[in-house]
Amino acid sequence: MDYYPLFLNLKGQACLVVGGGEIAFRKSQSLLKAGAHVTLVAPDITPELRQLISDEKITYISKCFIPEYLAAKRLVIAATNDSTLNRLISAKADEENILVNVPDDLKSCRFIVPAIIDRSPLIIAVSSGGTAPLLARLLRQKLETMIPASYGDLAKFAAHFRDQVKNKLSILTARRRFWEGIFEGPIANRVLNGQITFAENEFRQALALHVKDEGTKTGEVFIIGAGPGDPELLTLKALRLMQQSDIVFYDNLASPDVLNLVRRDAIRVSVAKKKNKHKMAQTEINSAMIEHAKAGKRVCRLKGGDPFIFGRGGEEVEALIDAEVSFQIVPGITAASGCTTYAGIPLTHRDHADTVTFVTGHKKDNGKLDIDFEHLAKDRQTIVFYMGLGNLPEISDRLQFHGLASDTPAAAIEQGTYAHQRVLCSTLKNLTSDTEGFDFQSPTLIVIGKVVSLADKLHWFGSPPIKGKCNLASDHLQDKTSLEFIPRFNTA
């Protein structure tokens, strides 16, 4: 974040604008709307500025700038057509610790002016950090069409009742929950439609009821699938509940970009699970969620992918049911679907695969890879291994041992759906050595089946696939009987 966003209270504050053109006029108007006392310095000015002066809205000094004009000013805008003069004004303002803005000169600015959506007292600011002001204005135009003017009335309505709610509901989470219900419910619609009297009566009834129920109300747990990484793959429901949560327990597979969409003031607790390293045991996670929910908090359990596909979501829901804690489950796009799609590998294709199987490649606590490889080693099937990179040598060997051709196309997808994702296309026989040669790291999804041969043709996202030790376009049709294979595990 290059700039710290804030809103300044300039009511009654002395501000200086240097310049007499169109930009100076616009800046003066904005400062006047904010209640500032504006002094304008310029030897020549536009007719629009003269009108402001004749209306006695600004003080005008018909001279060239001198540093003495900075005295007692809180904010300065240098808007002349002389870049050297603008930089001088900026330097002098800096010396006096006065906030200064020079339009179209980022290096001379202590603050920048965003594009504004004015629904006073509701103000929305959009900024590109000064790098693309036109883009910020285009976004503002889109937001203007989405946010009716009556949202200002809703903000005034809330201000009228704010102190009453604070006195009645002393706990912050209780107040937040109440206001969310107001802003997302029928009372807000009343205000937006101009039915203020009805809205006020219903508001008082809702507040009284909320105060009565708050002492007995328990929290809730949201089991949310965060998808494979790209935050745009989140569902609307997932985003809404993430924004409502008071505390978030998140996995290592929940991407930082997704985590940034959680409400800013929510407590975040990492329960990341990595190989041979668990910050919290599953039973501890269950207990923590239950404890916070029973304390009245809304708890978000944020998981990579989908909670019910190798995410242990079922175990967590069982614990919540046993503890009589209310919950919601939000499915997410699982890695097998999201990562393969971004890699240009369809899970099914009528020329290559009739079925698809998701398999966990992670060993159990007893150190065994308990998988029915004989069932998996079938033609016209796509196999997707989650968490399989560490056990890829055994996976490859056992599939070949049970008859799957060693030249079957196989792929590794590292950091799927991220801009920096890597896709390696190889064969079942060579995938292990290829992933080692290209230093693939977790999280990496393993895909085995003829559909992998389509990756080159269907590639659409990120860098093109990395080629392994074979040419998949022709080699995957080779007769498996001509390939020598020696298993590297004990079949006894």
Brief overview:
With 492 residues, this protein is α/β, with parallel strands linked by helices. Helices cover 36% and strands 18% of the residues.
Strand fraction band? 15-25%
CATH first level of the largest domain: Alpha Beta
Question: What would CATH call the architecture of the largest domain?
Answer: 2-Layer Sandwich
Number of strand segments: 20
CATH level-four homologous superfamily name of the largest domain: Tetrapyrrole methylase, C-terminal domain
Question: Helix/strand-derived class?
Answer: alpha/beta
Q: How much is the average pLDDT?
A: 90
- The helix content, as a percent range, equals 25-40%
Element layout with pairings:
Elements: E1 14-18, H1 22-33, E2 37-41, H2 47-54, E3 58-61, E4 75-78, H3 83-95, E5 99-101, E6 115-119, E7 122-126, H4 133-146, H5 151-168, H6 172-183, H7 186-192, H8 196-214, E8 220-225, H9 236-244, E9 247-250, H10 256-259, E10 267-270, E11 273-274, E12 277-278, H11 282-294, E13 298-303, H12 313-322, E14 326-330, H13 335-342, E15 355-360, H14 373-376, E16 381-386, H15 392-401, E17 409-414, E18 422-427, H16 431-437, E19 444-448, H17 455-458, E20 466-467, H18 472-475
Parallel strand pairs: 1-2, 1-4, 2-3, 4-5, 8-13, 8-14, 9-10, 9-13, 15-16, 18-20
Antiparallel strand pairs: 6-7, 11-12, 16-19, 17-18, 17-19
Helix pairs in contact: 7-8
